[in-house]
């Protein structure tokens, strides 16, 4: 987002009318949908950005579409957003706020980036490395040890069980505990040998 961008907001009383409003706005002008925020009580706010003329045209089209549902609460365009307003919108989307070119990241932004990097590294450590696994020549699947399986999350274990057809039904896979998933995978690997 740049300070030259305009922000368009359309608030409706229903999700359906908001989807229609967003679709209409995107078809009406060259704008970007940045969020469809669901608020309590069935209220939904559509947020758009783009150049001022495009956002005005898109909001007007979206407003007409939402009015046809009788769900429009309000619509507004903020031309040439202030830098602080742009930061507020970006923070709500979970992205670090845009900083002017050449500006150094704040301590908070550096801390957030470091945290994201640590999460990525943790996920990479979770998966067994190719060097730590053997290949089963018969079907090309990795042979995993109990220790490697213990390090995996339940979600990853369920994915492996599905891929290797180590359990019969989807219900059984979805309700199985970690120990059951590991047991079925080990049992399946022993049968393949």
Automatic annotation (TrEMBL):
Coiled coil: none annotated. GO terms for cellular component: bacterial microcompartment. Keywords: Bacterial microcompartment. It is found in: Bacterial microcompartment. SMART domains: BMC. It holds the Pfam family BMC. It comes from the Bacteria. Residues 91-147 are annotated as: Disordered. Residues 6-90 form the BMC domain. Its main location: other. Residues 107-119, 134-147 have a biased composition (Basic and acidic residues). The keyword Aminoacyl-tRNA synthetase does not apply. Belongs to the bacterial microcompartments protein family. PANTHER family: BACTERIAL MICROCOMPARTMENT SHELL PROTEIN PDUJ (PTHR33941:SF11), PROPANEDIOL UTILIZATION PROTEIN PDUA (PTHR33941). This is Ethanolamine utilization protein. It comes from Compostibacillus humi.
